[in-house]
From TrEMBL:
SMART domains, sorted: HTH_LUXR, REC
Protein name as catalogued: Response regulator transcription factor
PROSITE patterns, per the entry: HTH_LUXR_1 (PS00622), HTH_LUXR_2 (PS50043), RESPONSE_REGULATORY (PS50110)
Superkingdom in the source lineage: Bacteria
HTH luxR-type domain residues: 148-213
InterPro entries: CheY-like_superfamily, NreC/VraR/RcsB-like_REC, Sig_transdc_resp-reg_C-effctor, Sig_transdc_resp-reg_receiver, Tscrpt_reg_LuxR_C, WalR-like
Lineage, highest ranks first: Bacteria, Bacillati, Actinomycetota, Actinomycetes, Kitasatosporales
Modified residues (4-aspartylphosphate): D61
Domain (Response regulatory) ranges: 10-126
One Pfam family cited in the UniProt record for this chain: Response_reg
Keywords: DNA-binding, Phosphoprotein, Transcription, Transcription regulation
Length: 216
């Protein structure tokens, strides 16, 4: 007998192509741990639906007639929505990726991502963890490249350790447990990392770190 999952992750799909929406709905509804609450054809409708239905995760396309994804992400961030936004798009150019991350997206995947990778990314996003693969991070480089200023500090060993865990999608609580430090200390390390790398958030910090060879 199949056992019900301990937690069901709710999501909505925002994409202007009905075939894509149907495909994603079918994919996620084939797994008991996910429940698709609704579908929207543009960013404006997506914001309204996310506000009404309060899903754990919003799968958001970027380029849609009637309301793009970046504006929708920014609006959800402005409203302090609980939902995490995972961008799922065919576009991987610098001009698409960075604005979405800066607007408040938790992660960024391409539509050709394998089913298991997509499921893993939605689970991570639902937990508030950054979902940014090295392949996508490399596409952000030209927009987030910030040369070190004279006298600029390099990352300490512990800061690099924290950043490596962030790059794996590890939450602050999990980082604290793994490194035997408090969550407050983790946040302090991240604040220093952001300042030293000239990054606004976790995703941007990971992208810069890949560019500078800090993460390989």
């Amino acid at each position: 007998m199949d056992r019900e999952p301990a937690r069901v992750i709710t999501l909505i799909v925002v994409d202007d192509h009905p075939v894509v929406r149907d495909g994603l709905r079918g994919m996620f509804e084939s797994a008991a741990e996910f429940r698709v609450l609704g579908e929207a054809a543009d960013g404006v409708e997506g914001v309204d639906m996310a506000t009404r239905l309060d899903p754990d995760v919003v799968l958001m396309d970027l380029r849609m007639p009637g309301g793009g994804g970046v504006a929708a992400i920014a609006e959800l961030t402005r409203r302090d929505a609980r939902s995490r936004v995972l961008v799922l798009t065919t576009y991987d150019t610098d001009s698409d990726t960075l604005p979405a991350i800066e607007a408040g997206a938790t992660g960024y995947l391409l539509k050709d991502a394998p089913r298991d990778e997509l499921f893993t990314a939605v689970r991570a996003a639902a937990d508030g963890r950054t979902v940014l693969s090295p392949a996508v991070a490399s596409r952000l480089i030209s927009r987030v490249r910030t040369p070190l200023a004279p006298g600029h500090e390099t990352l300490s060993a512990r800061e690099r350790e924290v950043l490596r865990l962030v790059a794996r999608g590890t939450s602050n609580r999990e980082i604290a447990a793994e490194l035997f430090i408090s969550e407050a200390t983790v946040k302090t390390h991240l604040t220093h990392v952001f300042a030293k790398l000239g990054a606004k958030d976790r995703a941007a910090a990971v992208a810069v770190a890949y560019e500078r060879g800090i993460l390989g």
